[in-house]
Structures are given as structure tokens and as C-alpha cells.
Fold Probable allantoicase.
Amino acid sequence: MTDTAPAPGPRAAWSLPDLAARALGGAVLAANDESFAEKENLIRPYPVVHAAHTFGAKGQVYDGWETRRRRDDGHDWALIRLGVPGVISAVAVDTAYFTGNYPPRVSVDACRADGHPAVADLLKADWRTIVPVSDAKGDSRNEYEVADPARYTHVRLNLHPDGGVARLRVHGTPVPDPAGFADLPLDLAALANGAAVTGASNAFYSNPTGAIMPGLAASQADGWETARRRTPGHEWLDVRLAGRGIVRIAELDTTHLKHNAPGWASIDARDGADTFPLLERTALQPDTPHRFVLPGDRPATAVRLNIFPDGGMARLRLYGRLTPEALRDLETRFRS
Ligand SMILES: NC(=O)NC(NC(N)=O)C(=O)[O-]
């Protein structure tokens, strides 16, 4: 859970995942100045913390990135690698607790530098403006929507002229490099491979997208957890796969869900207008990574994970192979 959860409403861009998230592999690579507070705080996943009148050797302590007061005409910048490349739809610049020292204006540039570029190479990259110089407020979540269909790998946050920013969130659609998707089985449900959570019956305790994030869940808050269900029925999670493919192994990981794991789970698959069972209703254990080998060979584009009656899932992994057509589509999308 972060401090910068979008306000409710029909604002699709803000419900897209944060491509700069540290948990996805994002990193703050460089900043021209971090005299007061360090740049890495920009992508911390935690709510911003603040205690007034706490002074360190450099001044008041802030949970964010804060530069010195400029005495020239320049501006400050920080360079961020996205965890997974993608199309950026919205950027949030959260100045929580920066009141007398927030940047009055910000802008954001983006570039596409595939591979593993060094900072020196990135500084020479072809940067495009995705958020022009825009007004920002102090102690606020400043939101800027982006209408640019290009795929980017890095962003640069500019402060005009200087100041402090608590958090940067870069919402967008992952467009991963499909090199290697052809020869190896991959997790067709992984966000990093281009899958997405498209719906959940209940998202009371955590963001359901946590269930398809990389790595092991760090805690119960890191996966999907529902409220206790007090009515008949069951909870479910919808996932659009990275592409049309055949799933051979399903991993249902209830790690950290000790007294609130689902009793049972099943998975339904969808391919066009057809739906079919991928995993029949199966008993689950608390705090356990379950692995099921699936017998079928029908391709699917999306799945619904059903949990009975409620609980959640730390991680859902669906290992399989893309169809040749789906692989070609991803390659075209990545190159365009
Ligand atoms: N009281 C402050 O916050 N002062 C300043 N910042 C820090 N971190 O002390 C400043 O000058 O921007």
C-alpha cells in the first residue's frame, strides 16, 4: 500500500501500475543534487513519514528527495529507470510535507534506451518531454496525465528551480522486451511480462496487482487480500495474460496468509468467447506455495482465479508458452 493511492473515480490512467516501483525493478539512478535528502526516497513504496522539528546534520529530516536552495538560473533533476519499459499514461509528483521548500514547477522527460545503459549514456539519450513545465503545489499529490503512445525505459523528473519531492509514481502499461519469450516457458500472469489484473471482487486490504508482482511476497500486505466475506458466494481475481498462450503449471502461493488463506481455489480460463476450467476446485493450505501441473493444451488470453470463500493470494504464477502469433504481436509492439 502506498500513500499515493488514486482518488476513486473513472480515472483509468491512475489505476495502471507504477512502472517506476522499486518492487518491479525501478531505480533512481542519478540526481544532480541531493544535499538535503536522498533521491532513492522518491520510489519508496511506503507512506510518507514526517516528524516536524527533527533536525539532522544537514537540516530538517524529510522522507523524499530534496535539493539545496539554488543561487543560479539552473534547475534540478533526477533520473529514474523504469522497472519494466512501457507506455506512460500518468505521473504523480507527491510533495507531501514539503511546504516552504516544494518546487513551484516541475516537468518530466522520458527516453528509450534499451539494454543496460550507463548513466553517462543516458544523459546523452534522446529525451522527450512528457509533462511540460507545470505548476506544482506543496504538500500535495500533483497529478499530470500523459498522452504519448511511445514506449519509454527511463524518466527524468525536473524541479524548477529546486526543492523537495516525497514520491514519484509513473503509471503506465508494461511493454516488456519479448526476447527469450520464444524458447523458454514464462510466467504468463507476470506483470513484468505484460500481464495485468483487470478486476477483483474485493480489494479491501491491498492492491490486487500485488499478486502478479515479481519475487516472493514480503508480507501479507504485498499480495492480494480481501475482507472477510459475510454473504454467500466467493471472491475472484481476473488476470489478462501477457499474450495468448498455453498454461502448463499454476502456482498458487498463500505465503503469509496463515489464518486468512482461502479454503479452496479454482481457475477458469477464457479464449475469445469460450471459457473452460484450467484448475478444478482444489483445497489449499495456509502459508504454502502450491504448484499444480495442468493437463490441458488449450490456449487462453485471460483467467479468473476463484477463491472460496475469501482470503487472498500472495502470488499467482501461470507458467506456459505463448502461441507463435502472440509472440509476433509482442515483438511488433516492442519495436513500434
Ligand atoms: N526547515 C526546512 O525545511 N528548511 C529547508 N530544508 C531542510 N531540509 O532543512 C530548506 O531550506 O529548504
Remarks:
- The radius of gyration is 21 Å.
- The CA atoms of residues 44 and 145 lie 21 Å apart.
- The longest strand covers residues 76-94.
- Confidence is low (pLDDT under 50) at residues 1-10.
